[in-house]
Amino acid sequence: MSNVAIADQPDDSHHPKTFITKYVWSQDHKVIAIQYGTVAIFVGLIALVLSGLMRLQLGFPDSFSFIDPSAYYQFITMHGIIMVIYLLTALFLGGFGNYLIPLMIGARDMVFPYLNMLSFWFYLLSVLVLLASFFVPGGPSGAGWTLYPPQAILPGTPGADWGILLMLISLAIFIIAFTMGGLNYVTTVLQARAKGMTLMRMPLSVWGIFVATILGLFAFPALLVSAIMMLLDKTIGTSFFMPAIISLGEQTGYTGGSPILFQHLFWFFGHPEVYIVALPAFGMVSDVLATHARKNIFGYRQMVWAIVAIGGLSFVVWAHHMYVSGMNPYFGFFFATTTLIIAIPTAIKVYNWVLTLWKGNIHLTTPMLFAIGFIFTFTHGGLTGLFLGNVVVDLPLSDTYFVVAHFHMVMGVSPIMVLFAAIYHWFPKITGKMLHKGLGKAHFWITFLGTFAVYLPMHYLGFLGVPRRYYAMGDTDFVPASAQDLNASITVAALIVGVAQLIFIYNLILSLRKGEKSGPNPWNATTLEWQTENTPPTHGNWGEHSPVVYRWAYDYSVPNTLEDFIPQNIPDEAVAKESTTSKSRSQENGDKS
Amino acid sequence: MSDATIDTTKGIEGVVEDWSADKQTFGLPWGKLMMWIFLVSDTFIFSVFLISYMNARMTTTAEWPPTSEVFALEIAGQHVPLLLIAIMTFILITSSGTMAMAVKFAYEGNRKRTFQLMMFTAILGASFVAMQAFEWTKLIVDEGIRPWENPLGAAQFGAIFFLITGFHGMHVTAGVIYLLVIALRVRRGHYENKGYHIVEITGLYWHFVDLVWVFIFAFFYLW
Ligand code: HEM
Ligand SMILES: [Cu+2]
Hints:
- The complex is a heterodimer.
- By secondary structure, chain A is mainly α.
- Helix content of chain A is about 60%, strand content about 0%.
- Chain A has a domain at about 1-10 and about 20-200: Cytochrome C Oxidase, Chain A, CATH 1.20.210.
- Chain A is globular and about 85 Å long.
- The two termini of chain A are about 30 Å apart.
- In chain B, helix 2 runs antiparallel to helix 6, helix 5 (about 110-140) packs antiparallel against helix 6 (about 155-190) and helix 6 (about 155-190) packs antiparallel against helix 7.
- Chain B has a single domain (about 30-220), classed as Four Helix Bundle (Hemerythrin (Met), subunit A).
- In chain B, strands 1-2 form a two-stranded antiparallel ribbon.
């Protein structure tokens, strides 16, 4: 019977036996998560190196002969697309989604493990196809991560022969991979929760990942369709997106297509995509903040509804990316309004994070530092978003470095901050080892201060009118020469931040090998993943008995109890009260594990 | 927030409580729910296709070809618009009916009937694809329409027609294969222990493909 809750299903049927089935063709959600995570971090490092190269060119123009204008555009494009899709989307959903969903809701695995495994292998394939474009004639596409036609597929744009083909194919494969994983995540959250785990008791991490996955399932179709149509425009000469156009002095065969249609489709995907990476970040940061401040999350229900509201609204704001595209001005009015409305649930979330910290017992651990850092960077990026959401304010700022600064703050740095927080927070569960504290803190301070050194000046460059996606400024009247000094300083800061990530990688490797043992629950957290029988959890997660959930995920510092946290699977009777000193809950816990 | 039981209050509150309770949110087998979610996602794909089509049709610079003529059959010197499409639509809707019956017999445990009806559904589906191939041939060979050009008017006509009907045709073809696989397994008794939800899941997919066709039909042939 397929509709029995997984918790009740007999579990002994197919434990993997060989090394291959255990670690390579694995169907265990935890192994798949680690596979996803490793590949994502690997491509993320490539994107980081590319950003360093771009910064070298911008900071010290004409000093590096191997960065010519074509190469610069290829770096931009690959940097952008890798960061947004192959790193952030994959790491949040494929990585943390896979790892956390079953553990946090008390399931033994995803509902369809085989499909889940396929999802990873398709993802790997999409990454390989994308990276292959570095080695084809003409190199990768230089169309910008938004891939706007007509230029994306016309000669003159770098990679217009092979690069763009591989890019589009890789995106299509990624979407297939995402769909296979995403169907699993959604069904698992809806149907496979442990006894007592109501939706309104789920940790916010699960809520964020859950809603983000639904967004993905509805938004990626637009990207898939536009990728297919652009592929056809490119390969067999249809004119979906291509108007009659003269290219390199010759009339092309295209006629009557609509480039602006592509922009609509792209941003119908592109804006929800922002929230596909932001919502899991929102959720995970909430859990980290509550745990390390030893306080229940402020306004749990509001937080849940805010996630849902943001998810819904994110489908009706897309054209705020197109104020300068020449679309009907009335559209601008509508989309500016919806954009500003979405600020409300977002602001609620920020207030609630801050209020969670208020009067909390804050432990400045590494994950907590990153989580607090996130509040700063996200607020910062959100405020500049209010500028850009208004049509009249956006017009002069559009396509300047102000925009670059804005989106890096809000969807680049902020989710990355949460990813670091999450890695420092959950690494002990994943590996059984603690990450090194000193290295972690050094990593945090350099990264946090560094991002401001990189992006704050960019806002100012934007006000000066320095355009984005420019290889070099040359002699431009309206930009003062001092802008170049600013650019040089940004580059120095960016390189320091980039190199500082080596500390993190070193920390991962060092701690994996020699890290101090973490024990099952080093942060004294309440959520289920910390209550597993083994650390790291073994296949099937829960040993013989699935957990039963008696409370919500945030029982920290409950008055009149002995300890400052009550795990979700502890019934009321077993909670150690202040008066009954003889029997402490940790002893009980000790018996169990 | 610490009791394991939930009191099901009435009204909206009750609905919310009920939905978020610790039982499964939907009283469905996992596979069936997953198929539903997939179909919603697929709906987005087809919607984007159709919206792109509408957009192209409204913005293109050249004239849209007169659909009632392009899609007409020449029978005994008579010009019969929409004949082929009417037959195709009829076939597909009939196949939905046979599929629904297959589901009924599956739940009654009648393996033989289920097998037969699923095979019949698959045959109807295959004949739909065959007719579509016929129509494509007619457009390509007789009328000279190509994805990149169209002697009768806007080039987007051919492009988007072949794209959408092709994409739908691929769905039907995949559905036929899916039906065959499941039908053969039903005959072998593969699902005796697992239960026959799988037939209904296959059916969901099949009905979806039919439903999409109705929209394609309406937007392409009747507009
Ligand atoms: C140390 C970290 C980073 C540095 C130094 C950096 C630097 C840059 C630079 C120099 C550009 C090109 C600006 C231009 O010429 O218009 C750029 C573009 C971009 N970056 Fe980053 N970046 C970093 C991290 C990230 C992250 C984490 C994301 C994830 C969302 C991201 C997403 C993008 C996107 C989407 C573009 C636009 C690409 C395009 O215009 O097509 N970046 N970045
Ligand atoms: Cu947006």
